[in-house]
Design brief:
The chain is α/β, with parallel strands linked by helices and 487 residues long. The chain has 17 helices and 15 strands. The radius of gyration is 25 Å and the shape is globular.
Length: 487
């Protein structure tokens, strides 16, 4: 009997040693929200292009984008064969169109802008710590999620995954459900929202539809809260490949490889990129409208998210190009695109109202990396995916590789980056906007300085504005490991 009692006492003593560790994690068996300073975090991820699945969650689940290697190889050889048979580019283009359709057709939307096929994504209704892939994430939004789980305790981080093709108002319903679940499960009355990339427009839709009363702080991280030029150009048919932009992208991609970087410079020196763009110009001049009519418009033309991202000044041109004046027969769809444009036009007033009513915001934008060089405005400075101009809330930004000039005078010199590339004076919310040079799109990988910056943005309790901490000034520089330094 004494042995039994001794064992019980020993177990009890061991257990008491671990109680402080459990408490330090921010979670106890009796979580008291009145005493907990860790506001629940909602991470609204960005666009996961390959993250859509046919018959998601069933035994027939398969990637919506068909990347079957055998199919692609056959498609390539078929395109070449057609070109040889016709002894012209016509056959090659026909083959490429067929291949592109085979790859992307499952992404197609119907005439109302809803998914034509049974496509979905994995959902995470419970707190993120309940899912292994979220607990162990490394990069991008998954790394952010893991960071927040460890920083704010179990049950305090939630992850919104969604079908990025859908009407942002549809995704807003998912965000609302997640916000309500976080509040109900933790007992807190408000949440912090971290919206990344495409999550920016989705969060604008949530705030427009459901209000901001349940929001404590909102972080727009490399986000589309002001749309994206690439969407505008795509829907307006503004496809263009310039030699300089192509060189800039490849030079940036090979920056860490001296040999490849030398090859890129050599190709540029002998006019290789000029020669290549003569070929692409020929293809675009002769086949662009055909490819748009047969592939781009049927598959991508009715993705409502793209219409929300379209810049107001390009909207009417996009309608004319995509629908050729056939507005009446597309009336139902265009009502939805009009609603999204109205939503984005009201975004600035909405966020200003949020600030007036105590909701705190931060806008974090990057620059110093060229964007994909396939659209007319791809000389914009960016982070490899989105343009700094829109990410920053319409700051004045020099084209990639240039500065605003030695003679440039900013309205507020404090808002001019030290390298004279970005001027926040004209941005929507300059006092709340951070600009980080050379950071990748959606930074915040687990274990990095940038992840620590994210935690600071979510937990800082003083007056909240860009540069409130000496450690994190308004203008910063990132290296390849996402180490942040003062400019």
């Amino acid at each position: 009997m004494k042995k039994v009692i001794s064992i019980i006492l020993a177990i009890s003593m061991i257990f008491t040693l671990f109680v402080p560790a459990f408490a330090d994690n921010g979670e106890t068996a009796e979580h008291n929200p009145a005493e907990c300073k860790n506001v629940p975090v909602i991470i609204v991820r960005g666009m996961d292009f390959g993250g859509l699945y046919l018959d998601c969650g069933t035994e027939n689940e398969a990637p919506a984008i068909n990347t079957d290697a055998e199919m692609i190889v056959k498609g390539v050889f078929s395109a070449i064969g057609k070109g040889i048979a016709k002894f012209s580019f016509d056959g090659i283009i026909d083959g490429v169109k067929d291949l592109a359709t085979d790859i992307f057709k499952s992404l197609s939307m119907d005439e109302n802008g809803d998914s034509l096929y049974n496509v979905g994504v994995p959902k995470y209704p419970e707190s993120a710590d309940n899912y292994e892939n979220l607990r162990n994430g490394e990069g991008f939004e998954l790394g952010m999620t893991r960071t927040c789980i460890e920083a704010f305790g179990e049950g305090h981080t939630y992850y919104v995954n969604y079908d990025w093709r859908l009407d942002p108002y549809v995704v807003a319903d998912d965000i609302n459900e997640t916000v309500n679940a976080a509040i109900e499960n933790t007992g807190h009355d408000k949440v912090n929202i971290v919206c990344c990339s495409m999550g920016g427009i989705m969060t604008v839709a949530y705030l427009t539809e459901y209000g901001y009363e349940k929001v404590n702080r909102c972080l727009f991280m490399s986000s589309t809260f002001c749309g994206a030029q690439v969407a505008s150009d795509l829907l307006c048919g503004k496809v263009d490949i310039k030699a300089e932009n192509l060189y800039n992208m490849l030079k940036n991609m090979t920056a860490d490889n001296k040999f490849l970087s030398f090859i890129i410079d050599a190709l540029d020196f002998v006019g290789g990129f000029d020669a290549l763009t003569k070929v692409t110009d020929f293809i675009l001049d002769n086949y662009k409208d055909e490819v748009f009519a047969d592939v781009i418009k049927p598959i991508f033309g009715r993705m409502l998210t793209l219409w929300g991202l379209t810049q107001p000044e390009d909207y009417e041109n996009a309608i004319n190009y995509m629908f050729g004046g056939r507005n009446e027969e597309n009336e139902a769809f265009l009502k939805r695109t009009d609603a999204l444009q109205e939503m984005m036009n009201g975004r600035t007033a909405l966020i200003s109202e949020m600030l007036e009513n105590g909701v705190e915001i931060a806008v974090v934008a990057h620059y110093g990396t060229p964007v994909v060089p396939v659209y007319e405005n791809s000389d914009f400075n960016g982070d490899g995916t989105l343009e700094t101009y829109q990410m920053s809330g319409y700051a004045t930004v020099a084209p990639y590789g240039e500065t605003l000039g030695d003679d440039y005078v900013a309205k507020n010199p404090e808002y001019l980056s030290p390298d004279r590339v970005v001027d926040l004076s004209n941005a929507l919310f300059p006092e709340y906007t951070y600009i980080i040079k050379d950071a990748p799109h959606v930074a915040g990988s687990y274990g990095t300085d940038y992840a620590d910056f994210l935690v600071w943005l979510l937990s800082y309790e003083g007056e909240f504005y860009a540069g409130a901490s000496e450690k994190y000034p308004q203008f910063m520089v990132s290296d390849g490991s996402q180490k942040l330094e003062k400019f």
